[in-house]
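Sat 14:20. Reprocessing the chain from the morning session after the first attempt stalled halfway. Input below, unchanged.
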Amino acid sequence: MVSPRQARRMGGRTVALDRDTIPATQIRSQGHVIWHDPAMGEAFDPRLFEPDWLARNGLVTGRSTGRNEALFLHVDGLDLVLRHYFRGGLVGRLNRDLFLRQPVARSRAMAEYALLSWMERQGLPVPHPVAARFTPVAGLTYRADIITRTLPGTRTLAAALAQGPLPAQDWAAIGSAIARMHGADVDHADLNCRNILLDDTGRIWLIDFDKSRHRADGPWKRANLERLKRSLLKEARLHPAVTWDAAGWQALLNGYAAPA
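Finished this time. Tokens:
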């Protein structure tokens, strides 16, 4: 990891953020703005955001595929996930990863870091945020990256369904986890069967809170559930091995409606 002296040589400085709102330390290094977990202290190395450096040092243990590719890392005994932010839809075909410049705290990675930090402090089932990076680019744009802790022994809901039907208690646990998130007034921008994880103990985790936010109570909660159902229907249509039925969905709704 990088020392304070190395950070100064790299053009960095450390600034404490308001810990009542965002538990993070801010580093400015080589044009980047980085927030990281204060528990890492002076040991945090900004090069954890550099895929080439990570590969050269044997810190990459795997990668996910698809539009939102992520790198899995093992660093100083910690298992981490590095995710770069990409544009989606038609815009993404012309512009892979540039976003219109805005205040650092409102940028994609920092907003997700802040939301995850808050949700974790509320006891919600989300991954621990480790660091987020804002990289200004000429032309009033920026790129973004985030690092979180991995959730060991987990599989996506989509992967679990491909292995066979889920018992009703698992569906109910998924519904309960979503209800807890909604009880905290968090609107998940992309609640789908690949952003819900089940671990070996039966615990449910929710991931990928890009563009998610706090909202007052409203119809968006039902829209979250409908989006999840559409993703399940699509998964079953594309992958015949995926098995779920109306009884499973009803068990999810029962878990959602059950008292906390």
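The first strand starts at residue 13 and ends at 16.
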